[in-house]
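Protein folds are increasingly written down as discrete tokens. With that in mind, we are printing a sequence and the tokens encoding its fold.
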Amino acid sequence: MVNGNQTPFALGMAGEVRLRVESKHTADDMGNNGASVLATPVMIGLMEQASLRALAPTLPDGSMTVGVAVHVKHLAATPPGRDVVVRATTRFFDGRRIVFTVEAHDEAGLIGEGTHERVWVRSDRFLANVEQRFRGEARGR
């Protein structure tokens, strides 16, 4: 049930994502010339993916989660050719709101940490709201 207080999720659910850093994942590739290291937006994307993996086994049909907040620190640089492992663990629920602790590591240690927040929604309602929000654009507002 999405609109009630029942949740299919449990505290401590975890998801993990691994990535071998390539040049396309670097800050240099995003326009920060000379910074040939894992870009912060890529690390954040991996944190969101890990969070999705944590919830996937119990996510009810017809529902999804959407990211609404990210609070992270990028603590250390990772060059291309190195592996990054990101783990997200559910730590808090408040109705439809789910908060994760997230950590990213490479072979040398911790490179990023923080929290990520998602909201559990009904897929049909969410997509209808998106469509409605942009209807006026087609009419020229």
User: Anything to note?
Assistant: Residues 9 and 55 are 7 Å apart (CA to CA).
